[in-house]
Structure formats: C-alpha cells, structure tokens
Design brief:
It is a single chain. The protein is built from nine helices and two strands. With 190 residues, the chain is mainly α. It has one domain. Helix 1 packs across helix 4 and helix 2 runs antiparallel to helix 7. The protein binds iron/sulfur cluster (2 copies). The site of one iron/sulfur cluster has 12 residues, from loops.
Length: 190
C-alpha cells in the first residue's frame, strides 16, 4: 500500500482542488440545496454516533486500533468533501500511507457529523451486542434514512455516489463532479 500512497495522495489533492473550484462556481440555489441536505445528514450522524458511544464504541475501537478502517481510502465520497466546503473549512490532511488516510493516533480524525456513510453506519458484533433491541432498531432506522440522504446526492451529481471519491473521479474521466444536472434540478426540494 505504501507504494500506492504518493499516487493516491496526489490524486486526492487534485480532486479536492477541482471539487473546490466547481463548488464555488455552483449557483446559490444549488449551494442552498447542499447546505440543507448536509444539515439533515449531520443530525442523523450525530444521533448514530450517540448510540455508538453509548455502547462503549469509542473505547472498544481505541482498543482494537481501528481494525475495520482498512480500505478506508475508498469511504470518503463527494458528500464527505462537501461537508467541509459547505462550512468553508479545509478537509483534514489525508495520509495515504495509513490503512485509512483519516485514521490518526487517537482514532478517526473526522468528526462524527462529517464521517463517511460507510463508517458512521458500521458497528461490529462487539459493539452491536451492547445495544438494546430498541437502540438497535433505532440504529438501523437512522441508517436507512441516512442512506437515502446520501443517495439523493448520488442521484443529483455524477461525482457523488456510495463508492469512494477516488473511484468516482476515475470514472468521470475529467468531467465535472456536479455536471449540468445541478442546473436542471436546482429548484427541486431535498
Ligand atoms: S467497529 Fe469493531 S472492528 Fe471496527 S474499530 Fe471498532 S471495535 Fe474494532
Ligand atoms: S474515515 Fe475514519 S472511521 Fe472511516 S475508515 Fe477512515 S479512520 Fe475509519
């Protein structure tokens, strides 16, 4: 993996720059749609994280040093990046020499409300068995609603999707992450 790290790092930096430029050029109506959709996503993710923390998830994950975070480089999507652009903050530096570029010494460097969908909705057996039946039901209810929110981005923008941004960008072959569909659908409600 280390040998792929420089190339992945370069591609990621190029993507961040391109998405940033294209985001700034979006019509205000489109950026408003994005903001509102991201507020809903953040709310759902914070509640999911509350269930995870209530089941001692933080301590358990620290003990196993993020074993399930391998391949994390394919979890961040266009929606993940937009969570930072929408708040006018730079995304944290990505270190592609790690199993996941956002896995720091103290765990994930992405706050719960900005973590990729695959990450915030995954709990292993160790954590799941600490959730009550009611909590588990709520967890999967939130998961379904959250997935629909991410799918709305995927339906709207060719650069979004449930697959990671590195893979998505390669499939675009230089085309815009947002494309003209943004203009067509800018008046749609979220
Ligand atoms: S979810 Fe489970 S496997 Fe993944 S880091 Fe946490 S404890 Fe480890
Ligand atoms: S983004 Fe965070 S939670 Fe997701 S795989 Fe990477 S370190 Fe793990």
């Amino acid at each position: 993996m280390a040998t792929l790290a420089p190339e992945r790092g370069q591609r990621w930096d190029d993507i961040v720059r391109q998405v940033g430029r294209e985001y700034q050029a979006l019509p205000a109506t489109e950026r408003t749609w994005i903001s509102l959709a991201l507020v809903r996503i953040a709310t759902l993710q914070v509640e999911l994280d509350g269930l995870f923390c209530g089941a001692s998830g933080e301590g358990l994950c620290a003990d196993c040093a993020g074993a399930c975070c391998a391949k994390g480089h394919n979890h961040a999507t266009l929606t993940t990046l937009l969570m930072f652009l929408d708040r006018d903050v730079a995304p944290p530096a990505a270190d592609f020499t790690r199993t996941c570029p956002w896995l720091g010494e103290q765990g994930c460097v992405l706050a719960a409300d900005r973590r990729p969908y695959n990450c915030i909705t995954f709990v292993c057996d160790k954590i799941e068995q600490r959730l009550t039946a009611a909590e588990l039901h709520r967890f999967y209810q939130l998961d379904r609603e959250l997935r629909a929110c991410y799918q709305a981005f995927a339906d709207r923008y060719p650069g979004a999707g449930m697959t990671g941004l590195l893979l998505r960008a390669a499939r675009l072959e230089g085309r815009s992450f947002f494309d003209c569909r943004a203009e067509i659908t800018s008046q749609e409600s979220i």
